[in-house]
Amino acid sequence: MSYEFRWSVLWSGQSGAWLLQGLLTTLAISALAWVLAAALGILSGALRTVPWRPLRAAAAFYVEFFRNVPLLVWMFFWYFGVPPLLPAAFRGWLFDHGAEFWAGMFALGVYHGARMSEVIRSGIQSIPRTQFEAAYAMGLTTAQVYRLVIVPIALRLIVPPATNESLNLLKNSSVALTISVAELTFQTRQIETYTAKAIEALTAGTVIYLALCLLIAGVMGRVERRFAIPGLIVRGGA
Amino acid sequence: METRLADGQPPGTSGPRGTVIEFKAVNKWFGCLHVLCDIGLAVQAGEVVVVCGPSGSGKSTLIRCVNGLEPIQSGELHVLGECISRAGADMPLLRSRVGMVFQSFNLFPHMTVLENIMLGPIKVKKASRGEAESAARGLLERVQIPDKASAYPANLSGGQQQRVAIARALAMQPGIMLFDEPTSALDPEMINEVLDVMTDLARDGMTMMVVTHEMGFAKRVADRVVFMDGGQVIEEAPPGAFFAAAQSDRAREFLSKILTH
Amino acid sequence: MKRLLTAALALALAGWAAPAPAAESTLAKIARTGTLTIGTRRGSPPFGYVNQKNEWVGFSIDLVEQAIKPAVERKLGKPVKVEKKESTPATRIPLLTSNAVDLIAGTMTDTRPRRESVDFSLTFFVTGAQFLVKKGSPIRGIGDIAGKRVAAQQGSTNARIIRARVPGAQLREFPDQPSAFQALAQGQVDAYTNDGIQLAGLVAKAPRPGDWAIVGDFYSYEPYGMALRKNDSDFRHLVNVGLMEAIESGKYLQLYEKWFGPKGEVPYPLTPENKRFLTMQVVPK
Ligand SMILES: Nc1ncnc2c1ncn2[C@@H]1O[C@H](COP(=O)(O)OP(=O)(O)OP(=O)(O)O)[C@@H](O)[C@H]1O
Ligand SMILES: [Mg+2]
C-alpha cells in the first residue's frame, strides 16, 4: 500500500528529452515574457509618475486592470479571446505556428508587466523630487529626464523586488499548460502519464524550477552589485 | 563671458547689456497660500543679486520661477528676452540657458563626475562627446577638482559635490546662474571653497541670483541685495547701503538676528 | 502553479514520511472516519459532472453510491457516507497515493503502466477513442490527422497513442475537456480526440449538438475501472463485489439505462458484446 519509488523513470525512455524540451519552452516563454514585462513595467511605471494626468490615468488603468484579474483568465483571454479579432488568414497561420506559445507569452508578459510597473513606480517615487528638478533644470525634456536620469536610478534601486517578480514570472509560466503549452510542468505530467510515477516526476519538476530560480537570483545578485549606485546602496557582506 | 551671453540671446533683442530677468506684478499661490505677492524686480546682465529674508519668505520660490521650475499664476516674467509666463513657452530651451545650483547638490548618483557634467551638453546642446569632454575637464580645472573626473558623487565631499554641480550648470554656457542656498548643507570648512568659485564666476561677469545667508559673500560680491518677507520684496539696495542702513523694520530685525549669530 | 509545486513537495514528503508498515488499510480508515472519499470528475458527463441544478452527479458516482457503498456498509456493519473530491487525469494518482481519496471513480482507463502504481477494480465501462470534429470536416478518422492540429486531454492514453501512431499530427494537450472543446469550436484545433463516450457526452451537452460529428473507428480500447491504492486487496475485493452484485442484480443495467438509455443524458446503447463482457466478469458466488 505504500508508494514505491522508481527514480529511474526520470532518465529512462524519453523522459530526459521531454524534460529538456519542457525546460527550453519554459525558458523561451519566460524570457520573452520577461522582456515584454520589463518594457511595459518601465513604461507604465514611469507614466504613473509623470506630471500629466491622462497618461497617469492610462497607466493606472493598465496596472489595475491586468494585475487584478487572475493570470489563468488572461491565458484564456489571449488564447481564445484575441484570435477571433485577427484576420482569418493570419489566424490560420498562427494556429499552425505556436498560437498557444504566443498567447501564453503575452498573457504572462502583460500580466507581470502590470506587477512590475508597481515595483518601478515605487522605485521612482523613492527618488527625491530635487533629483527631478536638477534634471529638468539642465534643459532636459520630460522624456529625457526619465530616460537618462530617473529610470536608470530607479532600476538600480529595485533589483531585489524585481528579482522577486522575475521568479514569480518564471513559476507562473506553468499556467500556460492550461492552453496546451508544453512547458516544464506539462512535461513532468507527461512523464507521469507514461510511467504513472507521479512523485518522481513532480520532484524532477520541482528540482528544475528550484535550480532555475537560484540561477536567476544569482544572476540578478551579480547585476545588482555590478550596477549598484556607489554610496547609495549599503550592502552586507559581498 | 560677453560672447557667451551674446549667443545666449535670442535674435532681435538688444545686446548683452540690458535687462535679462524681469518680474512684472508676479503672483504665485500654493493652493491658498500666497507665496509671491505682486513681485516687480529686474536684473541686469552681469549683475549679482543676493536674495535674503526669513525662512518661508518665498526666496526659493522666487528664483525657481526664473527657470520655470515653479509656474506663476499672474503677472509676466521675462527671462533672456523671452516671456516665459505665456502658455507654450519653450521651457527646455529656457532652462538650457539658465543654470541652477541647489542646496542639496543633486548630482546624478549613477554617473561619474565627468558624465554628470557632459550630460547636458551632449543631450541638450547636441555637442559631440569629444567637445563635451574637453569642456568638462576645463570646467573641473576651473572649480579646482580636475582629479575627480571619474569619481562618483558619493565619493566626494559636500564641497566638492557642490563645485561639480556648479561645473555641471556652467557646462551649458548659461546666460544666468541661479543659486538656492548653495552652502547651507555644507560643513563650515567647505563653505569657502564653494563661495570662492562663485566669487570668481561673478568677477567673470556672470549674471547671478543667489539665495544665501552668507552675508560676507553678499557684502563682497553682490551688486544688489533683495530682502523678502511674506512673499513680498520689501527692500532692494546695494549691499553697502543695505547692511549699513536698512530702510524697513523687518529687514533690520532680520539682519540683527543673523548678524549677531 | 506555486500551488502545484507545494503540492508536489508535500506529496514527496508524505511519500517519504509515511512509514509503510504502520499504514492503515482503506477499510479500517473508512470504518474509523465513517466516510468513503472518492475522486471524480466535474466536467465529464455523464460519468461525473455538475448538472444544471448545480448537483455533482453521474454514472460513476451512482455506481459508488448504489453498488459499492452498500457493499462497504454491509461489511462494516454501519452506515458510511460518500464524500466527493475533484480529480483530473493529472491529479488522480497523487490524490490516491497520498490518501486524500480512497477510490477514483471517474473515467480512468485501466492500463498496464498504471497498474504499476495503483490497482483497478473490474471494468465497469468499455469505450474507445474517436474524434470530435465540426460537421463537414474532412477528418474521418485516425488516417486523416497527419499535419492536422488535434486536441487531446493532458495525461490521457489517447494523446499517447496519437503521438506514437501519427507523429506528424500537431498534438495540443489541454488539462480539461471544456478548454479542448473551446479550442475546437474556435478553430485553434481541427479535431478533438477522446474516448467516444466522453465525446458523446460533450456533444449532448453542447448548445447545438447538430454542429458536431463523432468520427472514426475506435482506435484504442479504453476499459474504465475504478482505481484504488495498491496492495489493499480486501478493499479491492469489496469494490468488485459491489460491482458484480450490481451487474448480477440488474442494478447496473438500470443505472446504464438512466444515463445512457434513449432518454438518458448521453444516449449510448450497450452493445451485446459489451454486455456479455460485463456479465462474464462476474465470478461465481
Ligand atoms: N511645493 C510647495 N507646495 C506648497 N507650499 C510650498 C511649496 N513650496 C514652498 N511652499 C511654501 O511656500 C512658502 C515659501 O517657500 P520658499 O521655499 O520659497 O521659502 P524660502 O524663503 O526659500 O524659505 P527657506 O529659507 O526656509 O528656504 C513657504 O511657506 C513654503 O512652506
Ligand atoms: Mg529656500
Average pLDDT rating of chain B: 91
Question: Outline of chain B, from the CA principal axes?
Answer: globular
Can you identify the CATH superfamily of one domain in chain A?
A: MetI-like
Q: Enumerate the distinct ligands.
A: adenosine-5'-triphosphate, magnesium ion
Structural class of chain A: mainly alpha
How many beta-strand elements of chain A?
0
Helical residue percent band of chain A: over 70%
Widest sheet of chain B: strand order?
6-7-8-3-9-10
Descriptors:
heterotrimer, A: about 240 residues, mainly alpha, MetI-like fold, 10 helices, about 75% helix, disordered C terminus, B: about 260 residues, alpha/beta, four-stranded antiparallel sheet, 10 strands, disordered N terminus, binds adenosine-5'-triphosphate, binds magnesium ion
Written description of the protein model:
- The complex is a heterotrimer of chains A (238), B (261) and C (285).
- Chain A has 238 residues and is an all-alpha fold.
- Chain A has a domain at 29-184: Orthogonal Bundle (MetI-like fold).
- Chain A has helices at 15-47, 53-67, 71-81, 88-96, 99-125, 129-137, 142-157, 159-172, 184-195, 198-227.
- The longest helix of chain A has 33 residues, at 15-47.
- Residues 234-238 of chain A have low confidence and may be disordered.
- In chain B, α7 (188-203) links the parallel β7 and β8 (207-211).
- Chain C has 11 helices and 13 strands.
- In chain C, β3 and β4 form a beta hairpin.
- The radius of gyration of chain C is 19 Å and the shape is globular.
- The N and C termini of chain C lie far apart (49 Å).
- The chains are: A mainly alpha (238), B alpha/beta (261), C alpha/beta (285).
- Chains A and B meet through α6 and α7 of A and α3, β6, α4 and α6 of B.
Ordered list of secondary-structure elements with their pairings:
The complex is a heterotrimer of chains A (238), B (261) and C (285).
Chain A: H1 15-47, H2 53-67, H3 71-81, H4 88-96, H5 99-125, H6 129-137, H7 142-157, H8 159-172, H9 184-195, H10 198-227
Chain B: H1 2-8, E1 19-30, E2 33-44, E3 48-52, H2 59-66, E4 74-79, E5 82-83, H3 91-96, E6 98-101, H4 113-123, H5 129-142, H6 158-170, E7 176-180, H7 188-203, E8 207-211, H8 215-221, E9 224-229, E10 232-237, H9 239-244, H10 249-259
Parallel strand pairs in B: 3-8, 3-9, 6-7, 7-8
Antiparallel strand pairs in B: 1-2, 1-4, 4-5, 9-10
Chain C: H1 2-17, H2 26-33, E1 35-40, E2 43-44, E3 48-50, E4 56-57, H3 59-76, E5 81-86, H4 92-97, E6 103-104, H5 112-115, E7 118-127, E8 129-134, E9 149-153, H6 157-165, E10 170-174, H7 177-186, E11 191-195, H8 196-205, E12 212-215, E13 222-229, H9 233-249, H10 251-260, H11 272-280
Parallel strand pairs in C: 1-5, 1-6, 9-10, 9-11
Antiparallel strand pairs in C: 2-3, 3-4, 7-13, 8-11, 8-12
Helix pairs in contact in C: 3-9, 3-10
